[in-house]
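Tutorial handout. Part one gives the primary structure; part two gives the three-dimensional structure as tokens.
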Amino acid sequence: MSASTDTQTPTPAPVRSERSHRRPVSSWREHHSWSAGASLRRLASKPVGTLLTVAVMGLALALPLAFYMLLSNVQTLGDALGRNQVVNVFLKPDQVAGNAQMLAKQIQQHDGVASVTVKSPQQGMDELSKMQGFSDALHALDDNPLPFVLQVQPQDGVSADAVSHLVDDVRGMQGVDMVQDSGTWRERLDALLGVGNRAVMILAALFALAVLLVVGNTVRVDITSRAEEIGVLKLIGASRAFVRRPYLYAGVWYGLFSGILAVGLAIAIEFALAEPVARLSQVYEGKFQAGGLPPWLLLSVPVAAAFLGWLGARLVSAWQLRKAA
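Part two.
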């Protein structure tokens, strides 16, 4: 029978080796080494089926990585677009320079404030005069109607709630007429990033389940096709763990190769986006620096995928062998 010549399922020779008088640890180690090599040779003997299985699993694992990379760069882009935008504090028209300086020092002592810049009415008038269409209108004014403006720069990484509390405190200060804040935009960005993070976690869990199912179904089909040979091995004394071991290593190989493929696809996506991202960075004068996936994540994906492959093979092979008993 052709199935009996396959190298994945243990042959009687390893069974006799298991029954020999050598030390149990040495025999256990030898059979693990043999099972790993036999399962790898088994996968290599059917390259088309192996490649298709690995490709499906690799694509499934690459999608969460791509979404994670996209999400992290959206957050970076938000910082470049001014996620911590300046809070403009307009003082009342009767406030003089001394009052503006005192108020700036008071705001500077607030937690979460990086800097406070005082803009005089004349500076505001000069900026308006440089804008197209304002020059002639400003010359018609008898005096300068603009107030002192305090430009409050929040610290990097400060939360939207902290900025909101800062704005509320500044609004209650004496001499403040109006506070112009982009807090709503920051809150929306934080909310979108929160939804994105949760979506990435859900996608990762779903695709991890998909890997388990793909490996489990592949192992189930393999065990079913070799039921007669497995029955012969049990008749000559092979234990369930002995028979199951090559299938567990097959699951590990499937997961490891698919994890490596997923990492390769993620790196390829980074290279594909490198040129447009570089142009985007030039537009924002270098403030936007796209980041790739961290090295620890790239290294952990093949390991996690190998574990998922082992787990899927372990669950299905245990169920199949128990059913065939």
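Part three, for discussion. The chain is about 70% helix and 5% strand. The chain has two domains: 2-80+189-324, 87-181.
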